[in-house]
Specification:
Shape: globular
Helix content: 40-55%
Largest sheet: 3 strands, mixed
Oligomer: single chain
Distance between the termini: 53 Å
Number of strands: 3
Number of domains: 1
Number of helices: 3
Structural class: alpha+beta
């Protein structure tokens, strides 16, 4: 019984992670690394949601050859650093390039 519940929760989590990555922009349309960048993107989105909750959906990033480019407007410089730290901890990520900015307009 517990294994079927675990399998159901895992399938739901993966479906959610895939759906949440739909707002990520990628610099290419086909994967030359066997899809590893796509898997990393799904893992990143899932980890951001796990640690930051649904509000993490505004975070934008690109994955290219295991390097993650984090970009967009953040409310504080600390927010951008925290996001970069979370992303850097995801398996497969070699480097995080933090291109976020703060705009208080």
């Amino acid at each position: 019984m517990y294994s079927s519940i675990k399998a159901s929760l895992l399938a739901t989590s993966l479906s959610l992670a895939v759906a949440l990555t739909s707002n990520c922009a990628y610099a290419r349309t086909e994967w030359t690394d066997g899809g590893e960048d796509a898997q990393i993107a799904v893992a990143i989105r899932a980890e951001l949601v796990r640690q930051s909750g649904p509000q993490a959906n505004h975070i934008r990033f690109q994955v290219l050859d295991h390097v993650v480019y984090l970009h967009g407007n953040v409310s504080t410089p600390r927010e951008g650093l925290e996001e970069a730290e979370i992303i850097g901890g995801v398996q497969g990520v070699k480097k995080v390039v933090n291109l976020t900015w703060t705009f208080n307009g």
